[in-house]
Amino acid sequence: MKIAIIGSGGREHALAYQLTKSKKLIKLYSIPGNAGTAEISKNIDLDPNNFEDLYNFFNKEKIELVIIGPEKPLVKGIVDFLIKKKIKVFGPNKAVAQLEGSKIFTKKICEKYNIPTAKFKICNTKEKAFEFLSSSTFPLVIKADVLAAGKGVYICKEIDDAKNAVTEIFDGKFGKTEQLLIEEFLEGDEMSFFIISDGISYKTFNTAQDHKRVGEGDTGKNTGGMGAYSPSSLINKDLEDKILKKIIEPTLKAIKEMNEKYVGFLYAGLMIKNNEPFLIEYNVRMGDPECQTILPLVDSDLVEIIDSCCNSSLKKQDIKWKTKKSMCIALCSKGYPEKYNKNIEINNLNEFKSTGNNFVFHAGTKKDGDKILAVGGRVINFVNISNNFLSSREEIIRRIEKLNWKDGFYRSDIGHKVINE
Ligand code: AMP
Ligand code: GLY
After folding, report:
1. Closest ligand 1 atom number to CA of residue 269
2. Helix locations, 20-158, DSSP H
3. Ligand 2 centre and the CA of 339: distance in Å?
4. 189: which residues sit within 8 A by CB, 6+ positions away?
5. Which residues, judged by CB distance below 6 Å to any ligand atom, belong to the binding site of ligand 2?
């Protein structure tokens, strides 16, 4: 099969790597890809949001399956566009991608189908938001109703923080916004829960825990994710049943009742309190870095799994899992998530490849002749699978220290909640 992956992050390198393990794969393209995907597929420098150019390329190369990694093209309707052009594509269409594209869309489904989530209020003017805040108790959470790469969420301890958030959102910090969401602050532990669906049936696709804050001990600014581990220590059979019955299945029912279907990965960001799940948000894709830590645990052919979703035959497809633990630590450019330098060389990175239980997935890297340059905030994901999280962490840190990239930094405490030191 000739396959193309859209995206250029660690998630897409991990997908590409897993696809290359399949005997079904004939040729793989990464659009636009990074220095890591360039080693195992052919990078094509096209814009993931220019659908017409993408289609012309797929048509010319006779691509048989397109896999969409990031949310932006999904929310913009790449799946609808390609299906119309008769290209087989893995990912949800525009109507259901609103699960990620609009937090208010998701909240309305939660309300209608009784899905446990934080209580919320939708406000469409600054004045109405201020009025609501004047009689609210704190902390609470304020969210812009746009795709904001995880940045449109404010946890507010007091009214002044909340007023500032409302002002920033309505002043257009995340683009034009007509409404925002004020939410009850949920306490508990977070978990990333994944399913994969063909529009008719679904299968669970493991769990993970990511570390979003930049600093040790989960402190400092929010990032795209500094590391993750899988499975989450919170998951158990009883909790999984509750997540499926109270959250996932009612959501899929809502989609069916809209006369739509969900094809792709669905990622539920959950808060767990006393073994009860609450939905924080949906993402209509794999997580990053959750994908990097989960995929090395898959013990079945990923081409077959994804293709079965596009052919409505997932039910017959077996998904086997290794019973190991997995961890991912992201090596980032100094300064991330704020200002950092670009085009900095990383020496000796070629010596670090995926072998045995170690995996190396590039994110913000670019090839420049023989050199590899760092061009993004999150640069390389180091993953290890083993029988326990501590030994995975030790092995990853040993490798990062060996690489010894002076312009990078990483969190050495990934998994601190599940590792007793
Ligand atoms: P979101 O983009 O909606 O996932 O929010 C980003 C992060 O903000 C989440 O991963 C949580 O850590 C936090 N968060 C969002 N909503 C809530 C909430 N209602 N209560 C507590 N924390 C929240
Ligand atoms: N790890 C968070 C995300 O992918 O949105």
Report:
1. 4
2. 37-40, 51-61, 71-76, 78-84, 94-101, 103-112, 126-134
3. 20
4. 234, 271, 272, 273, 417
5. 150, 210, 225, 283, 287-288, 290
Predicted confidence (pLDDT) per residue in 121-174, tens digit: 999 999 999 999 999 999 999 998 877 766 788 999 999 999 999 999 999 998
pLDDT value, residue 151: 72
Q: Which atom of ligand 1 is nearest to the CA of 281?
A: 3
Give the Å distance between the CA of 86 and the centre of ligand 1.
Answer: 38
Q: How many helices (H) and strands (E) does the chain have?
A: 14, 21
Q: What's the mean per-residue pLDDT of the chain?
A: 96
The architecture in CATH of the region 189-316 reads: 2-Layer Sandwich (3.30)
Report, at the CATH architecture level, how domain 119-184 is classified.
2-Layer Sandwich (3.30)
Confirm or reject: Cβ of 5 under 6 Å from ligand 1: no
416 Cα to the center of ligand 1, angstroms: 20
363 in contact with ligand 1, CB cutoff 6 A: no
**What confidence tens digit (pLDDT) does each residue in 59-101 have?**
999 999 999 999 999 999 999 999 999 999 999 999 999 999 9
Residue with tokens 């581990």: 229
CATH class name, domain 325-409: alpha beta
Q: What's the confidence (pLDDT) of residue 165?
A: 95
Domain boundaries, the chain: 2-93, 119-184, 189-316, 325-409
Hey, what CATH class is 2-93 in? alpha beta
